[in-house]
Amino acid sequence: QVQFVESGGGLVQAGGSLRVFCVASDTFFGVRVMGWYRQAPGKQRELVASITSAGSPDYSDSVKGRFTVSRDNAKKTVDLQMNSLKLEDTAVYYCNVLPNYDWGQGTQVTVSS
């Protein structure tokens, strides 16, 4: 069984910061590429950040320089630090392996003006 549980979402003012968390139930977590995705109403789910098993990150152009992804293989967690948040960052944020397994419930991030 592979499951992902996201948490840490909330309401934040534009320009503020928020950290979202993901804990995985996965025996082979330490050898997987992990990703953070988001989906806003009326839009497709998009990959915003990924991180290899060894900790090498990659980011979409829309979040590069503002978001930082990290992982702890011992704890089986993947975190996403979001700084300088913009209104367009409002979405439900999900974590998953690459390629995707079943989706968790995600965590809502709402950026207000």
Features:
113 residues, 10 strands, 51% strand, globular
Quick description:
The chain has no helices and 10 strands. With 113 residues, the chain is mostly beta strands.
SSE diagram, text form:
Layout: E1 3-7, E2 11-13, E3 18-25, E4 33-39, E5 46-51, E6 57-59, E7 67-72, E8 77-82, E9 91-98, E10 107-112
Parallel strand pairs: 2-10
Antiparallel strand pairs: 1-3, 3-8, 4-5, 4-9, 5-6, 7-8, 9-10
Structure characterization notes:
By secondary structure, this protein is mainly β. It has strands at 3-7, 11-13, 18-25, 33-39, 46-51, 57-59, 67-72, 77-82, 91-98, 107-112. A six-stranded mixed beta sheet has the order 2-10-9-4-5-6, with no helix packed on it. Strands 1-3-8-7 form a four-stranded antiparallel beta sheet, with no helix packed on it. It starts with a strand and ends with a strand.
Question: How many helical stretches?
Answer: 0
Main pleated-sheet profile = 6 strands, mixed
Strand order, main sheet: write it out: 2-10-9-4-5-6
Please provide the ordered H/E string of secondary-structure elements.
EEEEEEEEEE
What percent of residues are in strands? over 45%
Overall average residue pLDDT: 97
Structural class: mainly beta
Query: Could you estimate the helical fraction of the residues in percent?
Result: under 10%
